[in-house]
Design goal:
The chain contains three helices and 22 strands. By secondary structure, the chain is of the alpha+beta class. A hairpin with a 5-residue loop joins strand 12 and strand 13. Helix 2 (129-164) runs antiparallel to helix 3. The N and C termini lie far apart (131 Å).
C-alpha cells in the first residue's frame, strides 16, 4: 500500500512541479507589473514636479520684473553762501548816435572808430549849398524889408508933424502909421528866417556832445546826408560811447529779488581777465518783476578809468546778497517737467511720490533746489515720463553725487 502511494507520488511529481512553477511565474509577473507601474508613476510625478517648479520660478521672475528697477540719488546740501553769480551785459554809461541837423554832403571827417573825443570837439563838416543860398536870399529879403521900414518910419514921422498943423488929414497919418507897423512886422519875420537859416548853417559842423569813444563811423567824404529831423531814411554819422563808467544790467531770479537792494557790492569777472575781479555797486532796480522771465532787472555801475573793460562784453556778476539760506543740489536728469510744474520722483517705502520743487540757480549738470526736498530722501535718476505717484519700484543702487556747482 505504501509502495503504491509512493509510485503515485512519483508519477504525479511532474504535474506538481509544473503547478508550482506556474505559481512562481505569476508572482514574478505581478511583481514586474508593480515595478513598471511604480517606475511610470515616478517618471510622471517627477515631470509634473519639474513643471510646477518651473511655473513657480517663471511666476516669481515675472512678478520681480513687473517692478521697475531704478537708480536713486540723495539731495546734496549746498554750503550756505552770500554770493549769487549771474550773467550780465556790459554797456556804456552814456551812448548816442550822432545825426546831422541839416541835409548836404560830407565835406570832411576828422575822427575814426576808436578815437577818444572831448565834448565840443569837431567831428565832421557838411557842405550845404542849398542852405547857403537860402540864407543869402533871406538876408537880401531882410535888407529890402529894413529899407522899406526905414522909409515907412520917415513917412510916419513926417505925417505926424504935418498933422499937428492940420496940413494932412488924420486918415493920411493913420495910413502912414499902419504902413510902418506892417513893415516892422515884415522885418521881424525876415530876421527870424535869417536866424533859422544861420542856425541850420551852423549845423554844417558836427561836434561831440560829451567825452567818449567813437565806436561807429558810417560816412565818408561825398556821402549824401539827410537831416535827422527830415522824413525818410536817416543816416547816423557816428556813434559815441562814454566808457569811463559802465552800466551792467543783470536779471535776478524772483526768489532773490527781495535781497537785491541798492547799495550792495558786486564784482565782475570776464573770460579775457582770468583771476581778476572788477568792483562795482548795485545802484538801482526796476522795482518790478518781469511777468515773462520772472526776473528783476538791476543795474550795477563799474568804474572803468583805464578803458580796459569794453562795452558790449559778457560778464559774470558776483552779487553779495545777505541772508541766502542753505539749499540742495540735484543732477538735472532727476527733473520732471509737467503741466503741474517742476517735479522730482521720490522713493518712499518702495513707492514713487511725485514731489513739486522750487528751482534756483542752474549750474549746468546740477540745479539748485530751494524748497520741496529733504537731505535724506531718495530721488530717482532719469525717471520715465510715464512714472506715477504710488507706482511700486525697486532701488538698484545709490548713484554717486558730483561736486557742488561753481556758483555756491
Amino acid at each position: 500500500m505504501l509502495s503504491e502511494t509512493k509510485v503515485q507520488v512519483v508519477e504525479n511529481a511532474p504535474q506538481i512541479q509544473s503547478a508550482l512553477d506556474g505559481k512562481h511565474r505569476g508572482r514574478r509577473g505581478l511583481l514586474a507589473a508593480v515595478v513598471v507601474f511604480l517606475a511610470v508613476a515616478g517618471i510622471v510625478a517627477f515631470g509634473i514636479l519639474r513643471r510646477v517648479r518651473a511655473r513657480n520660478a517663471v511666476s516669481t521672475e515675472t512678478a520681480a520684473m513687473a517692478v521697475p528697477l531704478v537708480n536713486v540719488v540723495s539731495p546734496q546740501r549746498a554750503a550756505p553762501s552770500r554770493e549769487l553769480v549771474l550773467p550780465g551785459n556790459v554797456e556804456p554809461y552814456m551812448t548816442a548816435p550822432i545825426y546831422s541837423r541839416t541835409s548836404g554832403y560830407v565835406k570832411k571827417w576828422y575822427v575814426d572808430i576808436g578815437a577818444r573825443v572831448k565834448k565840443g570837439q569837431l567831428l565832421a563838416e557838411i557842405d550845404t549849398p542849398e542852405v547857403d543860398q537860402q540864407l543869402q536870399q533871406s538876408r537880401s529879403n531882410l535888407a529890402t524889408a529894413e529899407a522899406n521900414l526905414k522909409l515907412a518910419e520917415i513917412t510916419k514921422n513926417r505925417y505926424s508933424e504935418l498933422l499937428k498943423t492940420s496940413a494932412v488929414s488924420q486918415q493920411d497919418a493913420d495910413n502912414a502909421i499902419g504902413t510902418y507897423n506892417a513893415n516892422n512886422s515884415i522885418v521881424q519875420a525876415n530876421q527870424a528866417n535869417v536866424k533859422q537859416l544861420e542856425t541850420l548853417q551852423s549845423f554844417e559842423k558836427i561836434y561831440a556832445p560829451f567825452d567818449g569813444i567813437v565806436t561807429v563811423r558810417n560816412v565818408d567824404v561825398g556821402d549824401l546826408i539827410n537831416s535827422g529831423s527830415a522824413p525818410g531814411t536817416k543816416t547816423d554819422l557816428f556813434h559815441i560811447a562814454q566808457a569811463g563808467k559802465l552800466r551792467v544790467y543783470v536779471y535776478v531770479p524772483q526768489e532773490y529779488s527781495q535781497a537785491a537792494t541798492p547799495g550792495l557790492t558786486a564784482d565782475l569777472t570776464l573770460a579775457e581777465f582770468p583771476g581778476r575781479r572788477f568792483p562795482g555797486k548795485l545802484v538801482r532796480t526796476a522795482n518790478a518783476i518781469n511777468n515773462v522771465t520772472r526776473t528783476l532787472q538791476i543795474e550795477v555801475d563799474v568804474d572803468n578809468p583805464t578803458g580796459k573793460l569794453l562795452s558790449g562784453s559778457y560778464a559774470e556778476v558776483h552779487l553779495k546778497l545777505p541772508g541766502l539760506a542753505s539749499t540742495y543740489l540735484l543732477p538735472v536728469d532727476t527733473l520732471l517737467f509737467r503741466s503741474e510744474g517742476l517735479q522730482v520722483a521720490v522713493v518712499k517705502n518702495g513707492k514713487v511720490v511725485l514731489t513739486p520743487v522750487t528751482p534756483g540757480h542752474d549750474f549746468g549738470n546740477q540745479i539748485e533746489i530751494l524748497s520741496g526736498l529733504n537731505e535724506n530722501e531718495s530721488v530717482i535718476q532719469n525717471p520715465p515720463d510715464s512714472v506715477l505717484s504710488g507706482q511700486q519700484v525697486q532701488i538698484a543702487r545709490a548713484a554717486p553725487q558730483s561736486g557742488a556747482g561753481g556758483g555756491q
